[in-house]
Structures are given as structure tokens and as C-alpha cells.
Amino acid sequence: MELHTDVTLDADHALARVALVGALNTETAPGFEHSLQQVVAAGHKLIVLDMKDLDYISSAGLRVIFKAAKQARSSGQRMAAANRKPHIDKVFEILKALPDMAVFANDRELDDYLDTMQQRARGD
Amino acid sequence: MGRSIATRLIALLTLCAAAIIGVGMLVDYRLSREQILGRLQHESEETIRTIIGDMENWLRGIEGATNLVARILQQRDYSQPGLQQMLRDMLSSDVDIYGATIALAPGQADSPLGFAPYYFRRNGELVYADLAAPEHNYQQQSWYREAVDAGHALWVEPYYDAGGAQVLMTTYAVPVYRQAASGERFLYAVITADVALQELRAYLQRLHLGDSSFGILLSREGVILSSRHRENLMHHFSATTAGQADPEGWQRMFETAIGGAVATQRLPCESAPGECVFRLGTLQPTGWPVGVVYSEHEILAPLRDFQYKTVAIGLLTLLSMAVAVVLVSRRLTRPLAALAGASDSIARGQLDVALPAVRGDDEVARLIQSFAAMTTDLKTYIADLESATARRSRLEGELSAARDIQMAMLPGQGEASERDETFSLWARVRPARSVGGDLYNYQRRGNRLFIAVGDVSDKGAPAALFMARAMGLIQQLAATASDPAAALGALNDALEQGNDNCMFITLFLGVVDLQSRELRFASAGHTAPSLLRGGAAHAIAQQQGPALGLVAGLQYPGNSLALRNGDRLAIFTDGIDEAFNDRNEMYGMERFNGELAACADEPVAAAGPLLLEAIDRFAADRPQSDDITLMLLDLKAAASATSHALIELDREFLLSPGITGAVHRWLEQALARLAPAPRQDLLLVVEEVVSNIARYAGLPPQAAVGLKLTADPRQVAVEVRDAGTAFDPLREARRASLGESIEDASVGGLGVHLITSLTDRQSYHREDGCNILRIVKFL
Q: In sequence order, what E strands does B387-479 have?
């Protein structure tokens, strides 16, 4: 049971996209926590957790996301989740975890959201 | 108003008054009618008599004047001028006489033609005519000849005077005879007085008896002299329309009248409704029938007026009477109607409704006063009842809460069902009142099944409180003791402490070794359980000690029984064998054992309710008098228990950083045949449990964590065993509150939520220094 993370940044470093591949469980959680801390610390305005290839998540994994979301929030950043598989969704549901975190069912919703954000940023 | 008293009163009084007034007026009417009829009869006859009398007097006046002249001429001679003078005097003195003549008999006059001067009235003047002229030939005239032929005075038949006055006339003719010297009587003259019939008619016209009435005058020959119908004048009655209609009737009347009697006949009226009366009598001097026709309807008009007046007065009286009755009845019954309305309101619960004001001291006033008193009493009563009900419902609420609390002390809250591959158990307690003194308990520790059934003396709240105390002690002491007899002794000592009320409890305490099937038990005055084996049930032999709680320091004998697979043990309280029916018969052990054998093939969860139903059927309407507790325990054949299990794995993992991964892989493989969803859930839950142990159990590295997996087509059970610090994650673990926003949410405390949400049954117990967490997921 392993977890790979792949972080991609957009041109102006406002958006970080963290793709999770594998299982986020008690064993992989500490490593992921370390990676995610670094991404949050980099100060990206929006951090999207892409769970397209995440097969499994336990409460330890959720704890890491939870903690990072809290941290991001306090420093004015936002964290969002995208592409949750049904059983991952179920765990989030049971724990009513992160009710105010933006959730995108698929890439398209995420892209639409990002477009809106960029337009708004340019408008500023 | 409907069928109210007022309506009935009005109807009855009005009817009575109508009857009384009606009878009174009818009697009065009858009497008055007779009187009025008599008076009318009398009046009409009086009228007729008066008028006929007047006519007769008038005719007699003329007769008198003529007879006087006749008597004078009988005795004295007059010259012819003297006779003429006498005639003029006669006409002058009696204006009723139209004309008069003195016709001398032949031979008495100087002239051979005779002597007959005639004076008559024309336009107020006396006119002279000489009837002795040859063209008159008076000796051949009817008046002369009739008088001479009769030899006495008479009224000749009326005739039309063509030569003289040109009117209808009649003549009174008197023959005058003289005595000759020789004594011979000879005719000297005939004296006549003419009268116009219209004078008589004037009298008859006074005969007025209503608009339709008229007088009628006939001659002796039956010629009509006066009638309403002018065209009938001077015609014989048989030639008239009326006469032709009833010739015999007229003839009979005419003959009766001529004979001097009064004839009466009824005939249809011409100008008035109903019948007319025709009365015919005789006009005395002339012998002419004279009569009157009148309408009875018109004569009786005053009577009819009287009738109308009577009816009108009667109706008016009745109406006034009815109005008076209505007013009086309304006034009398108004308070009653108001009272009826008020009682309706009271019946609907409006006790503050206003009652009618009390006036006077009559029955109604007393009724209203009683009603007011009743309302006040009712209010007090209802208030009392409400407060009593409130108190009672509060008590009931408390008792119900107490029952819930008491039941919560028992495994399964009063009804428990437990199944395992080696045994199945069903138990139920049913208190006689809200709360009771019966109890049961069971706990499984590894291969040992601890069971207890007890019965506190007395029922209700005191028993319940003592039971609560006993239950706590049983859980404390008995659950840890492996020797039931020693546990009973310890319980007895504990319960005896401070038991000044001398409450006591009978108790069965047993421990079943699920592997060796040995039952070790002890009984503190409790009924021996029944054993169902090979289709027959009987009480098991036992040595017992006294009930718990009375005397301290007792030793209880221990018992032992070797159970076999397929055995069923029924442990119960005396509420079952001592249940009574209406005929005061006791249910007894025999019936119970019979029923127990009868439902041997049912699983315990079905057999238990059936046994209780059998007791209810027996007791029928008699309420349950004592608390009832029944526990059934089946020991299953080990072969059948394993045959259902698809997987039975037992493995130990050593604590290391990679333990969750190892568990995950092992479990994933073991559950490979399961559907993905339950498999994912179980994997997640077991990982949560194991990572919890790794983190919090305080175990050294490389300590063992045991995992036992049992799966059959219906469920998957995982038992996780660790030797760490005693910790019940189901009760003691911190649980994060869910649904908080990121700012408020705490990190951690999520695992327990996942465990309880994703599996169907979780239980924890500690055994031999180990934490044992068992989780079951239904498939």
C-alpha cells in the first residue's frame, strides 16, 4: 500500500494541483502530511487535491487533509477536493468532513471553477 | 322550539280553551237561534196580519158607508134629485169610494127606462153619468143581477171599467128591499160603491218581507187581482207560468183559501237563493184569497248576521286566548329554555356559562338554584379530578422512566437474544407492574458463558430498587468469579449489608463452559431450571442455599451438570409456574415442561414468546400477579456451528510501523470473495482499530495483536485482541463532533465514527487481561 503524490503548478503559481495515487492510510499519512505541508507553505492561493487515482483513505489520511485545510484557511488560502471516488466520498460523508471545502465531482467542474477564478483575478 | 314544554303547553291550553269556548258558543247559538227564528216568524205573521187587517178595515169602511145608504133608502122615500144628492154626499164623505150608483128596480122609477144616476171621480171632480140610458141597460149588468140573484150584499167579480174610469174596478152591491103595505117584501133598488183595485194594491205593496217578497190577491174565481207580475193581472192563476208549473199545488192552495183556512207551500224562488214560502189566506169581507210570497233566505238574514257575528266573535276570542296562552307559556318556560341551553353548554364543558336570573321562589327558581349549586360542585370536582389526574400522570411518567432505567440495566433492555456458533440464548423479563424485581444477566468471556436469573421478594418500586442494587453487585462480583457457589456467598454478604427491610432475592447463577459443555451452578432458593433433552423436559436436580440478603456468612453448595449438544435449558422465576387462572388453578411445572417440549423444534427466539403466550392463554382474563422472567439457552452441536462458517481465521500480528499494511493485505486476501463495498468498509474499520491500538494501547514494540475472522454468508465478524491498558474504544474514545467548520473542528477523533457507522454490531469486553473488541458486519 503506497501513495504517490504529484504536484503541478500553473503559470503564476496561484494554483497547486496535488494528485494522489494509491492509498492514504495510517502508513502513508505521515509522508503525505510532509508533502502537503510543503505545498501549503509555498503560499498558493488555491490547493486542489485531485483524488482521481486515490483508492483508499482512512481517518489518519483525513486527519492530514483536515489539518492542512485548517492551516491553509488561517493563512488565507483555499483548499478544494476533486474527483472523489464513491467509497472515498462515503468516508467524507460519514465524518461530515470539511463541509466548507469546495468539492468538484470531476475535472470539468474544476476547470470551470478555475476559469472563473482567473477571470476574476484579471478583473482585479 | 320543537317539542318543548312551551309548545305543548300552548297547544294543550289553546285546544282546551277552543273546546270550552266552542261548546259555550254552540249552546248560546242554539238557544239564540231558536229565539231569533221565533221572533222572525212572529214578526212576519204580525206584518201579514196587520196589512190584511188594514185591507179588511178599508173594505169594511166602504161596506159600512154603502150599507148605511141602503138602510136609509129601505125606510124613507126620496125624490130623484134627493137620491142624486145622497150619492154626491156619499162620495164626498168617503174618499175611498171611486164611484157610486143607486139603481132603482123596474117599476120604482118614474121613467120606464128606470133610474140609475152614477157619480164618479175624475181629476178631483164628481162627474155624473146616467146609467138608465138605453145603451147601458143597467138591469142587465152583472153587479145588478148578481146582487138581485144573491138577495144580499156582495162584492162582484172585478172587471175593467171601460166606460167610466178605465181602471180595474170592483163593486160592492147592496140590494135594498122594502116592505109593502101588504107585508110583501119587494126589491126597491140596488146601491153600489165602486173601488179601484189599485187602492188595494197599495196596501198589498206594504206587505214587505224582504226584497224578493210580494203580495198576491185573487178573486173568488181565481183571477189574479194583484201580483208582482203585471202581465198576469186579470188572468186566471192557471194561465200563469207559476200556475202551469204546478197546477195541482195551486189548485189545492186556492181551494183551501176559499174554504177559509191558511195554506202554505214552498216553491223555488225566482229572484233569491233557496226556497220561497207562499202563504195564502182569505180576505174576510170579500172572500178573496190573499197571500204573500217571501224568501226564507231573506227572512233569515238577521239570523245569518247573528251566525257570522257569533263565528267572528268566537274566532277573535280564540285568537286572543291563544296569544295570551303563548305569552304566558313563554314567560313561564323562558327560564327553562335558558336552563336547557345552559346545561348543553355545561355538557360541552363550558362550566362558566351564565344561568338565567332567579325570580321569585317557584319551582323554576329552585331548579335554577340547584343547577347553580351543581355547576359549582362540578367545577370543584373537575378541578380535583384534574389535579388528581396530573398527580397520577406524573407518577405514571416517573414509573415509566423508572421502568426504562430498570430495563436498561438488563442486557438487551428486558429482552435479549444472543447467538453464537456454540450457543443461542433468549431472555425476557415482564414485570407485573411498571417496575418489578425480576432480573437476568449473561456475559460471555471467551469460552465461558455466565448466566443469572433472579427474583426479588415483593413487587413494584421497593423490589425494583433492591433489584437495582442486586444487579450492580451481580455485575461486580459474579462476573469476575469463576465459581458460582463462592460468588453467591459473596453476593449474600454484600446484600445483607444495610438490608434493614429484610428484602431478599432468590438467584440462579451458572457458568457454562462452551467447549466442555459443563454447567456449574448454584442456587439461592431459586426454582430449579428445566432441561429439555431428547424431546422431554424435566427439572434438574440441584442443591440450594437460602435466599440472598437475610443472613450473612453463608456457604452455598455448588452443582454441576454435563450438558450435551442440542440441550435446551430453561431458567425462570416463579411468576411462571405460580401463574393463576380465574378458577384459581396454578400453571405448575408440569404444564410448563409440556409446553417446553412442545416447541422443542423452534429456535429459542421463537420458543420463548410461544411459552409466554401459553401462560397468558392459561391465565386468560386474570391479570399477571407476579413478575415473569424466562431465559432459554440452547447448546448447538459444534459440527453444525462450523459448517456454516465459510472462513474462520485466527492470526497474530506484531506491532511495528507496518502493521496496518500487513493487516490490510491479510484481510484483503481473506475477504477476496466479498463484494467490493463491504470489503472496503471492513478494511477501513479494521485499519482504524489496529492503528488505534498501535497508537494508544501503550504496548511495547513487537507485542502481539490477535485478529480472529469469522465469515458466513450472512455476516463477517472480526475480533481484535490486545494486551494493552484496559480501554473500551466504543465508550471511552474521544469522538470529534461532526459537521463543524474548519475553524471549529478538531483534528482527530474520527476513527470511532467510522467504526460505528460502517459496521452493524460492536461490542467490547475485557478478558484475562486483554481488550477484546468484536465487530460484526451484516452482508
A: 415-419, 423-430, 438-445, 448-456
Q: Inter-chain contact A59–B664, Cβ cutoff 8 Å?
A: no
Backbone CA torsion sign across B461, B465, B470, B475: positive
Read off the pLDDT band of B298 (50, 70, 90): confident
Q: Are B764 and A76 in contact (CB under 8 A)?
A: no
B733–chain A Cβ distance below 8 A for any pair: no
Is the Cβ pair A59, B750 closer than 8 Å? yes
Beta strands B530-533 and B505-513, pairing class: unpaired
pTM of the model: 0.41
Residue to test with chain B: of A2, A92, A95, most B Cβ within 10 A? A95
Question: Tens digit of pLDDT for each residue in B435-488?
Answer: 778 889 988 877 888 999 998 887 677 778 888 888 888 887 765 667 888 888
Helix (H) or strand (E) holding B488: helix B484-496
Interacting residues of B312 by C-beta distance below 8 A, sequence separation 6+? none
Q: Taking residues A50-67, what's their average pLDDT?
A: 86
Answer whether B743 sits within 8 Å of A101, measured CB to CB.
no
∠ CA B634-B640-B643, rounded to 5°: 145
Q: Report how far residue B737's alpha carbon sits from residue B747's, in angstroms, rounded to the nearest whole number.
A: 10
Q: What residues make up the domain containing A31?
A: 3-123
pLDDT of residue A99: 63
Range scoring the smallest mean pLDDT among B177-181, B267-271, B293-297, B415-419: B267-271
Closest CA to B460 of B498, B403, B411: B403
CATH, residue A94: 3.30.750.24
Q: What is the pLDDT of residues A12-47, one digit of tens each?
A: 778 888 999 998 888 888 889 999 988 888 888 889
Q: Which domains does chain B have, with CATH numbers?
A: 207-299 (3.30.450.20), 410-638 (3.60.40.10), 645-778 (3.30.565.10)
Q: pLDDT tens-digit profile of B106-153?
A: 888 888 888 899 998 888 888 888 888 887 788 888 889 888 998 899
Contact flag A70-B751 (C-beta cutoff 8 Å): no
B187 or B639, which is more confident = B187
Mutate to test the interface with A, among B747, B753, B758 (most CBs of A within 10 A): B747
The neighbour count for residue B231, using CB atoms within 10 Å, is 10
DSSP annotation of B287 reads T
Element of type H or E holding B765: strand B761-767
Contact A25 B664 (CB under 8 A): yes
Cβ neighbors of A8 (< 8 A, separation 6 or more) are: A16, A17, A19
According to the 3-state scheme, what is the secondary structure of chain A? CCEEEEEEECCCCCEEEEEEEEEECCCCHHHHHHHHHHHHHCCCCEEEEEEEEEEEECHHHHHHHHHHHHHHHHCCCEEEEECCCHHHHHHHHHCCCCCCCEEECCHHHHHHHHHHHHHHHHHC
Total number of domains constituting chain A: 1
Q: Which residue of A has its CA nearest to B736?
A: A95
- Contact (Cβ atoms closer than 8 angstroms) between residue A42 and residue A14: no
Nearest-neighbour CA in chain A from B757: distance (Å):
7
Position B612 confidence tier, pLDDT thresholds 50, 70, 90: very high
Min Cα separation A57/chain B (Å): 8
Q: For A27-42, b where at least 16 C-beta lie within 10 A, e where not — what string?
A: bbbeebbebbeebbee
Q: What is the pLDDT of residue B630?
A: 94
Assembly ipTM: 0.79
> Is B684 in contact with A97 (Cβ distance < 8 A)?
no
Distance from CA of B734 to the nearest CA of A (A): 14
Give residue B643's pLDDT band: very low, low, confident or very high (50, 70, 90): very low
